Amino acid sequence: MRLGIVLSACVLVVLVEGTVAAQGSRRITLEQVKQAADPPGISNPLARLGQLQIEAAKQHRLGVQADYFPKFGAVFANLHYTEFLGQFLTIRRPLISNILGVQGAAVAVPIFGQNQTSAALTFTQPITPLFMVHQAVKIARADERIAIAKAGAPAARTARRAELEETYFKLLIAQRRLTSAELKLRNSESRTLYASNSIEAPRDPGPELEMAETKKALGTVAAEVKKLTASLNLAMGWPEDTELELAIPEPLAENMSLEEVADKSAAANLDIIEAQETVVKARAAHAISKLEYVPTVAAVSGYLFQNIIPAVPSNFGYGGVIASYTLFDFGKREHAVKEAHAQAEMAELGLQLTKAKVAADVKKSYYELEQSRQLSRMALKMGSSVAVLMNVSSAPENLDVRAARAEVEVQMLEADLAHRQAFARLNGLMGARQ
């Protein structure tokens, strides 16, 4: 089977290379055109965008993981108040007041200093919030996996490559149709000239009508060739009027089976990966909502220097545990748990539906691939048979034979294009890089 395809490909190349080659044209291949949609290095904005998405997701995950570790902090304050912040105390002395006639003495006792300076070093290690951090890391890691999957097979790049491949084949087909129309026009003109030079034969309007239709078809195909050529030149970064000589790619050769496709389809499909990670995120969010019922406990310690309160030592350290809990929140936590539970069930159901949809699409796409594969092989066999008949029956070739050769080339190229498009759709469902 492989040998037959290679021989048919050789026949296709021989058929196509038998056409008239443009003088001074620029020869390109299908691979060169595809590379225009996926330039290497930093010049590719799609690849750079994917890398930035992965980097953003990675940094977010690392930031969430940092909440596992304790937090060290520092506070410094230096304040001056315009008023004295203490209290005035009156001290009464009965004996002295009776002898000297003094009622008492008022003494200022500083409770808060008028000039205040404080500096503190703090250490806080969360304890029960670590369970929430663990679930938040799961969510961040799921987002990172989605970003990696999207960057591995960006839809925009794949669509651009498929679009350029289709344009390449359409231009090949249009060039062959243009050749066929030109040959038919030359044949019609020769027949019309022969009929006009004949005196005895009555004038038949058929050749003139045929020539008019051929001219109309020739103008339509020529306009299509010009438009497709300009499109490829724009993709390659060349002037729009550059004449192109397209190399004929070998016909697609593949022998994928339905069992092979079914085994690989669920592994790398972007929709399935995203649905699976959505389930992970929903389950983690459900766990976080339940942890709202757990008190917030943290271990704290620190060192403080102060002169705010003179009665208190100016240098001291401390350590201990702080716990907080909301006793009543009018059912907010309960409703949040129920909401997260419903969202988790929705995510799991969405995963099942996505798997079923992808499996059905893969099966349908495979049957389309199989049909296009058979049609492509049939067209190649017919082309090889027609080429043998032409080589045997026509020496040298006349205009009708050359026009028929161009029509055979069109059928073979159309069958190969349909085969490639079906193969690309199947690869897209399987998540394969193209």
Supply the number of helical segments: 11
The radius of gyration is 42 Å
Order of helices and strands: HEHHEEHEEHHHEHHEEHH
Q: CA-to-CA gap between the ends?
A: 24 Å
Low-confidence stretches: 1-23
Strand content: 5-15%
Q: In what order do the strands lie side by side in the largest sheet? A: 2-5-7-8
> Helix/strand/pairing class, anyone?
alpha+beta
In short:
By secondary structure, this protein is of the alpha+beta class. It is built from 11 helices and 8 strands.
Q: Can you walk me through this structure?
A:
By secondary structure, the chain is of the alpha+beta class. It is 64% helix and 14% strand. The strands form three sheets. Strands 2-5-7-8 form a four-stranded antiparallel beta sheet, with no helix packed on it. It has a two-stranded parallel sheet with strand order 1-6. It has a two-stranded antiparallel ribbon with strand order 3-4. The radius of gyration is 42 Å and the shape is elongated.
Task: Give the topology, please.
Layout: H1 2-17, E1 26-28, H2 30-37, H3 45-65, E2 71-80, E3 87-91, H4 94-100, E4 105-109, E5 115-126, H5 129-152, H6 155-197, H7 206-236, E6 244-246, H8 258-268, H9 270-291, E7 296-306, E8 315-324, H10 332-393, H11 399-430
Parallel strand pairs: 1-6
Antiparallel strand pairs: 2-5, 3-4, 5-7, 7-8
Helix pairs in contact: 1-10, 2-6, 3-5, 5-9, 6-7, 6-11, 8-10, 9-10, 10-11
Structural features:
single chain, 434 residues, alpha+beta, 4-stranded antiparallel β-sheet, two-stranded parallel sheet
